[in-house]
Amino acid sequence: MSFLRLVPLLRHVSVLAATVAFAYGAADAQFAASHNSSADSSVSSSESSSSAVAGDASSSSADASPSDPGASGAAAAQENGGYGRHSGGHESLTSRLTFDLGAGFNAPIGNDTSTGGGGPFITWGGNFTLGGGLRFSKRISVLGEYQFMDDKLPGSLIAEGGGTTGNTHINSLTVDPVIDITPKWKNGLYAVGGFGWYHKSTNFNVFVPDEFGFLESVTANSFSSDQIGANFGLGFQHRLGGMYGDSKTRLFAEARYTYIHTPPITQDNGLGTTEVIPVTLGVRF
Length: 285
Hints:
This protein is of the alpha+beta class and about 280 residues long. The chain folds into two domains: about 1-65; about 90-285, Porin (Beta Barrel), CATH 2.40.160.20. About 30% of the residues lie in helices and about 45% in strands. The protein has helices at about 1-65, 70-80, 155-160, and strands at about 95-110, 125-135, 140-150, 165-180, 185-210, 215-240, 250-260, 275-285. The longest helix is centred in the N-terminal third of the chain and has 62 residues, at about 1-65. Mean pLDDT is about 80; it is low at about 1-5, about 10-30, about 30-65 and about 75-90.
């Protein structure tokens, strides 16, 4: 009897369980479909983004192609050893500045060594050079230079001038083009020359005691002149650094023939034309 009473209850429970199972299965199927749809949307978005990135990359590659003037300018700048890296292929004014500094010795030649007419008139001495200017290309620069030369006087000329010692001082301001013959070589040659103003003074000195009784050199006689002159010569240079041989800093050694149109011997205080060869060691940058 008791079992027969439980049959309706079991029937109701079975129907309820079947209903719950059906509802759960439907909900699970709907969730799976929704998840697959979201995944498909994500893949489509990723593909769209990848296509956009690829399109941007292609656009960037096209912009950086050799046909682009900017890329061509950069390539040309590298090929020219760094020249033309500013403002569309032209260097700025400050980057084109160049300077040199050097010192050395000089030797007299020509009239200054002749025995005729009362010579020789100067002996060997030292010199100092300082200059600055503009680089117009890797091959051509123009410098404005100051040079000072100090030479001793021969003993015979000192005695004739009434002195105990003597010297010649030559100060000059010149414009000097420099032409790099081998602009791409680490070790190369250049030509240099120019013209300008030269001031030459010849001084005869004597020793006199000062107030404490010590001897000091005093100029007893002196004469000077201002005139034009010119110089030209060759130099050897060594570039310091630079991956492409484009370093602007160079060590140099040069020799120049210098001619100064000083007053002729026939004039008062004239010793004839001055000819010397300064040899200078220095740095240019």
